[in-house]
Amino acid sequence: MRATRERTVSGRLARLITEVLAPGVLVTALPLVAAARVSRSPQQLLLWGGTALLFCAVIPVGVIVHGVRRGRLTDRHVGDRTQRARPLLTGLASVAVGTALLAALRAPAELFAVIVVIFVVGAACTLVNHWWKLSIHAAVAAATTAVLVLLFGPALHAGWLLVAAVGWSRVVLRDHTWPQVAAGALTGAPLAAGAFLALG
What we know:
By secondary structure, the protein is mostly helical.
């Protein structure tokens, strides 16, 4: 049934959107964008961006990939809610270490705020997913858009169309319901904006 659904045009498009705008992709891109914005030299970009990338993306995503290969996780999007606690908590621990290192490295406030946003939104998703399968795709897409608007201005409000596309893709693939997608977006955006404005 699932394989048949994904062979349709809408199913293929939904799968493409889900993969291209997956949480792992966005938490890789966002810190690098922020690091590039605040770095005044290639050395700073390498130091701050590399630290953020390692602890916010490489380690958390690596834990999930390793879990899939070992058979402990069903898929790289961790579709089974009961399997989410361990990778989410490990990812949070990694982001926390990265946050502490960036503070020690005196990273600019904007970059530090972005990493805190990733931690705060991740913590909220981890908490909610203990009881209910909130859409992490939607939460991270909404959080990313909120931060980009604050970093680069109102033109980036166009990103909300991509958030809607992500939500649509998760429902079409039947990985989430519309309430789960809406809850993700309504969790990610205000938490991200609040954390960023408080620290940025």
